[in-house]
From TrEMBL:
It is a multi-pass membrane protein. This is Lipoprotein-releasing system permease protein. One of its GO terms (cellular component) is plasma membrane protein complex. Belongs to the ABC-4 integral membrane protein family. LolC/E subfamily.
């Protein structure tokens, strides 16, 4: 139990009338507050960036794409695969799609993208995810139309309602092979005959919608009939687009589904940004290490205060020891001093961090204006604002570590101070 005399002396040493220690105490409290503020704010912002990026991927990409492996002989037909996917636990929706890589051209401009051909009825869940990212047009997916991203629209120099020519990837690959075979022929007649067979078969499509690539991804979307026609599938499909209830468990979902669908390949929503997500996690680990060093520096400031007090109060420590005070009682005086500094500093840092996080976008705007820059924040664009995600457990752990470091920093010099002989301390 804390002795009232120990608490009285601790508060008295923190607020002396005729010494410079009070200023040092203030600096120590501010050091702890800044350390806690840095740890909470940086951690919250970095987690916010990761969560925002995950939400961006999940909000546009299909959670799981299951495509049939043409080389597999034991793969079940897509109709059976669709039933199994719908019956799988955790499935929100499953829709067949006809898609692949599509090359697009307009005048002298060309580009390519992955295209998904969806039925408006079966693919309603997939299309509903894209609605918030639609900049212009509609997602009706009428026959002979295509929805592309604004990135590809800029590359082609087109707008809503313009017509582009598209080429299926297999047609381009076949043309490349034929051209290579023609170059290998020595006979001019055979070379000409092969080149005459090269046909890309361009298909005209009208742009019916434009998606924001920053948040809606870079895929293109057509109707199921248009996709089957472009990729020469007949009545077949390329695969199944699956939406699941818990996107975070996509890998576990595919592990469960894979034995039931042999001969099918899986593409997860995390594949598009897996390297970036891994990089974010590595950055968080390194940043946590740097923040720990900052917290340690704040603890050193508390230790500095305790060392200063124990040095200046050597005679008083000697008097307490001569009067029969136990070493633990003397140590408790300086431990209470460190606890007071740690609690007040941690509390101020926590309040300051919550205030900074609340005003983070206003602070960014003020700093930008002060440095002569400009803020071009487009609503809905990834990182258009500074994201922040506060985990209560992280905040609580940060505060506990801060107070614990202050206690350790106060204990060490106090323990050494109690080892002095009373007579030696009184003579000093």
């Amino acid at each position: 139990m804390v002795n009232r005399a120990s608490l009285f002396l601790a508060l008295r040493y923190l607020r002396p009338k005729r010494s410079f220690v009070s200023v040092i105490t203030t600096i120590s409290i501010l050091g702890v507050a800044v350390g806690v503020l840095m740890m909470v704010v940086v951690r919250a912002v970095m987690l916010g960036v990761e969560v925002d990026f995950r939400d961006t991927l999940m909000g546009a990409e299909p959670h799981v794409l299951v495509a049939k492996d043409n080389a597999a002989e034991n793969a079940p037909p897509w109709q059976e695969a669709l039933k199994l996917a719908k019956a799988q636990a955790g499935t929100l929706s499953a829709a067949p799609y006809a898609g692949g890589i599509l090359y697009m051209a307009r005048d002298d401009y060309q580009t390519g993208t992955q295209v998904l051909g969806l039925s408006k009825e079966d693919g309603q869940a997939n299309l509903a995810k894209l609605t918030p990212h639609l900049m212009d047009g509609s997602l009706d997916l009428l026959e002979g139309t295509i929805v592309i991203s604004d990135y590809h629209a800029q590359q082609l120099g087109v707008r809503l309602g313009d017509e582009i020519s598209v080429y299926a990837s297999q047609n381009v690959n076949l043309a490349v092979r034929q051209y290579g075979e023609a170059n290998e022929e020595d006979s001019p007649e055979k070379k000409k005959a092969i080149r005459d067979q090269i046909k890309l078969n361009p298909q005209p499509l009208r742009i019916s919608g434009v998606l924001r690539a920053e948040t809606g991804g870079y895929n293109g979307y057509v109707s199921m009939q248009t996709g089957q026609k472009l990729f020469q599938l007949g009545q077949e499909v390329t695969g199944i687009a699956i939406e699941i209830r818990d996107p975070q468990s996509a890998k576990d979902f595919t592990r469960t589904l894979e034995p039931r669908l042999p001969g099918w390949k899986y593409t997860l929503w995390t594949d598009a940004g897996e390297s970036r997500l891994a990089a974010m996690q590595n950055e968080q680990i390194m940043m946590q290490f740097v923040l720990s060093i900052i917290a340690l520096v704040a603890a050193f400031s508390v230790m500095n205060t305790t060392i200063t007090v124990t040095t200046q109060k050597r005679r008083e420590i000697g008097v307490l020891a001569a009067l029969g005070s136990q070493p633990g009682q003397i140590v408790s005086v300086f431990l209470l001093q460190a606890v007071v500094v740690g609690v007040i500093g941690t509390g101020l840092g926590l309040i300051g961090s919550l205030l900074v996080l609340w005003l983070r976008n206003d602070i960014r705007q003020l700093l930008t204006m002060a440095t002569g820059g400009q803020v071009h924040a487009v609503e809905g664009v990834f990182l258009s604002t500074i994201p922040a995600y506060i985990q209560p457990m992280d905040v609580a752990l940060t505060c506990l570590i801060s107070v614990a470091l202050c206690i350790v920093a106060g204990f060490l010099p106090a323990w050494f101070a109690t080892r002095m002989e009373p007579a030696e301390a009184l003579r000093d």
